[in-house]
């Protein structure tokens, strides 16, 4: 009876027809648009910024937009993304000089805030900020590229964070990002995730609705 969210990563969308492709994946039953921002500095790749987020809003996309900031520094982009239509903004704690300040900045701009943990980033970053978070995102691949394989150790980390969230009594989403597909989504959910990013697994198939339906079937088992 968990309310699961499926968040296609537009990193794997048809970038030359982004509006249409995002529209199509939302029509196919996706809940949230996962928007990967890479700066060729914090991560080795370069994607898109607030202007592209705004363009999706102007195109008519009304679904929540989940902005995953893989950038350093972080803070200067937050007001721009909030104005461009972001709903959730997550960032990597090691990319921020002042984690508490960055979280406050996101919330002061009316967005939900989340911390992102790379596969080897320790969870102690949660220690003093847990009660300010709306989302905790665990990377199940090293950030920078779509189409990588799920790192199995993430399942242990998900279970640890699920316990922390349950003990906190707070309503915090546990999002997972990287290598999620129909074949492993049930296992990832069983470890405690309730929000699933999937890029290549959805956009590399011709029928998005079929993939999303299969994912939901896995989640309802
Ligand atoms: C990786 C990105 C992911 C990526 C996921 O740095 O944060 O969102 O697009 O792609 P898949 O689902 O193909 O692993
Ligand atoms: Zn991402």
Automatic annotation (TrEMBL):
It comes from Pseudoalteromonas holothuriae. Pathway: Carbohydrate degradation. GO terms for biological process: pentose catabolic process; pentose-phosphate shunt. It holds the Pfam family Ribul_P_3_epim. The active site is at residues 36, 177. Its cofactor is Co(2+); Zn(2+); a divalent metal cation; Mn(2+). The gene is rpe. GO terms for molecular function: D-ribulose-phosphate 3-epimerase activity; metal ion binding. Its EC number is 5.1.3.1. This is Ribulose-phosphate 3-epimerase. Signal peptide: none annotated. Catalyzes the reversible epimerization of D-ribulose 5-phosphate to D-xylulose 5-phosphate.
